[in-house]
Amino acid sequence: MGWAQVIGDQDEARKLSLFYIEARSGESPAVSLGEAEAVLYLQQGQCTISISGRKFDADAGTGIHVRAHEQFSFINDREDAARWLISICPRVSGLNFGSRDKSLFDQNFPQRSVAGKGRSLQATQDRFYKLLVGPKIGSESVTQFIGRIPPSKAPEHYHLYEEAICILSGHGRMWTGDRHTEIKPGSMIFLPRKQPHCLECLDENGMELMGVFYPAGSPAINYKTA
User: In whole angstroms, what is the distance from residue 17 CA to residue 3 CA?
Assistant: First the structure.
């Protein structure tokens, strides 16, 4: 397994941390969460995730929730690596690896896997989103969603939560005031709480993104700056 932390205290994140993980062929070490909880998104490949001994199969686009005091590991029986994005809250610096089978699966929340395919889209202005992991399946800290954006530029706005975004397809610009940066597939974005911003899609085929934010809630809620 290979991993890198892409969002953390170096970005002045207070609650969110985001990791990129490649789960290679075989079974990975177990990641222990302690008091934190995690939401995972399978960006590419197929993989099985073991959450404190309970196994869940995942295809690309699947969201996973791991509760506090649990641990998780990956089982990949394919030659190609499975590529995951993992948000852990409250924020951590690095991953904590422990012995397997040292934690109990929380039976009060049996549903942990949410497939992105086939889920209905909800509209917010001219943009669309679908929820994956959220309070309905027991994620108390973090909400995970997929956003779809047609060619357009949103009005500048801000949120009352910290947000991490990964661009899955399409290209455009992320604006903060009169400053902007180019974004494309693989771009990672961190937005502090109350950071004014707007996302502009320049791709004729639209843009798709995966977002996570703390505290949990609805991605449709935002506040205009003017």
Answer: 13
